[in-house]
Amino acid sequence: MSLTTDAITAAVLFGPGAALGAATLVSRRGDKTDAAAVRQVLAESAAERAARAAGAGIAPPDGGEGIPAPADGQNVPLATVLAFPEGRVRRAA
Question: How confident is the model at residue 12 (pLDDT cuts 50, 70, 90)?
Fold first, then answer.
């Protein structure tokens, strides 16, 4: 085979891979800095939530109500429970 045929074959075989590799490298150029910025924001958010949870009486920054203080062993019924009259029992088959 001649040098021209070898060059064309190499271009056909390696050209798409080289083009995709270059495009991938360009697109992944800022991944580490972006990931570091995301980790920083998540750490700040977690620290803020932990500080807010530590102070139960502190209102959230959006102006809503704070977390209510937990009751000391008081169970509040969620719904009224009605007893069925005796004698009217339904037997499921």
Answer: very high
At which residue do the structure tokens 């932990």 appear? 50
Please report where in the chains the tokens 């040098």 appear, as a residue: 3
C-alpha span between 80 and 76 (Å, rounded): 11
3-state secondary structure of 26: helix
Q: How far is the C-alpha of 4 from the C-alpha of 12, rounded, in Å?
A: 12
* Residue pair 65/59 in contact by the 8 Å Cβ criterion: yes
pTM of the model: 0.35
- Please check whether residue 39 is in contact with residue 30, taking contact to mean a CB–CB distance below 8 angstroms: no
